[in-house]
Design brief:
alpha/beta; 6-stranded mixed β-sheet; 11 helices; 10 strands; 34% helix; binds pyridoxal-5'-phosphate
């Protein structure tokens, strides 16, 4: 079975400052599913993998540090599916640890220039792939598709009933859309990790096939720390502190920024007394390997 929920747990962050505000803050540890295929990615892949019949080739896309490529390669290995990863940018002399892991798991890698990569959603590009690989299924980058969001919707079934707010980091917004599709009257809070993402609501409409209530959505737009995969000393210090105080490891691209945002907003009074907040740890810890040794203390 691909889905092994048994390692998922919920950690309550106990602290005086939270008790004083009468706020409960906990973390749904999807990073605990598996070392490679951690977090939200398995959920996004769920319906794609379910639909793929034997003999078909799975094709997907990502950058050199893509958690999505790593998760797809590993899931395909477990399911005995041949897969091809189309990687943004020319092949470097030294492959990233992520891409090495993908190769180890049996994914075939194809490097394309950034210009070509940017056409990956065009009909011409997809047609060419279909001609070359007749029996193939294409998963958009980051699982950006209704099926990806529908898989994520299952995450809400792991959230305790008494929760008032559910928070997640936002990249393609597939995870956010999936949570909203199954919101169970909880407020869903998204923290974009890219600078100036102005199209999140239209992304959600596309991903959910216009089937969600945007009233349940709140976005915290000011926590991108300069943009995708950018970081500051303040973020790194926060992540080290988070681990020291609560034994919670985070990654600097997604979950570190999300946790920072929620801590900051609790301090600034966004959450009423009695709030019961669950942050989703969407995994991605392998991405920290790209940081210089010694940056993080965990
Ligand atoms: C991919 C990823 C996200 C973002 O998910 P989207 O569905 O693309 O918004 C968040 N956290 C981690 C760790 C990820 O790898």
């Amino acid at each position: 079975m691909l889905f092994d929920y048994s390692h998922i747990k919920i950690d309550v962050l106990e602290d005086n400052w939270l008790r004083e505000k009468n706020i409960s803050l906990s973390v749904l540890r999807l990073d605990a599913i598996h070392r490679v295929i951690s977090g939200n990615k398995l959920f996004k892949l769920h319906y794609f993998l379910e639909d793929i019949s034997s003999g078909k080739i799975l094709i997907t896309f990502g950058g050199a540090y893509s958690n999505h490529l790593a998760a797809t390669a590993y899931a395909c290995k477990l399911s005995n599916i041949k897969c091809i990863g189309i990687v943004r940018g020319e092949k470097p002399k030294e492959l990233s640890h992520t891409l090495k892991q993908c190769l180890n798991d049996g994914m075939e890698l194809r490097f394309v220039s950034r210009e070509i990569y940017d056409q990956k959603e065009d009909d011409g590009f997809l047609k060419k792939l279909e001609e070359e690989f007749k029996e193939s299924i294409v998963i958009p980058e980051g699982g950006y598709h209704f099926k990806g969001a529908k898989g994520v919707a299952m995450i809400m079934d792991l959230i305790p009933d008494n929760t008032t707010h559910v928070c997640c980091a936002v990249g393609t917004a597939t995870t956010l859309a999936g949570l909203l599709m199954n919101h169970k009257q909880k407020k869903i809070i998204g923290v974009p990790v890219l600078k100036g993402m102005h199209d999140i609501e239209s992304r959600i409409s596309f991903l959910s096939e216009n089937n969600v209530d945007l009233k349940q959505l709140a976005l915290l737009n000011e926590y991108h720390f300069g943009g995708y995969a950018k970081k500051t000393d303040e973020l790194i210090t926060f992540m080290n502190e988070l681990h020291k105080r609560y034994q919670l490891p985070t990654d600097f691209v997604y979950t570190g920024k999300m946790m920072y945002a929620i801590f900051d907003q609790i301090k600034k009074g966004m959450f009423a007394s009695g709030s019961n907040i669950v942050c989703i740890h969407t995994g991605g810890l392998q991405g920290n390997l790209s940081l210089p040794k010694g940056t993080l203390f965990f």
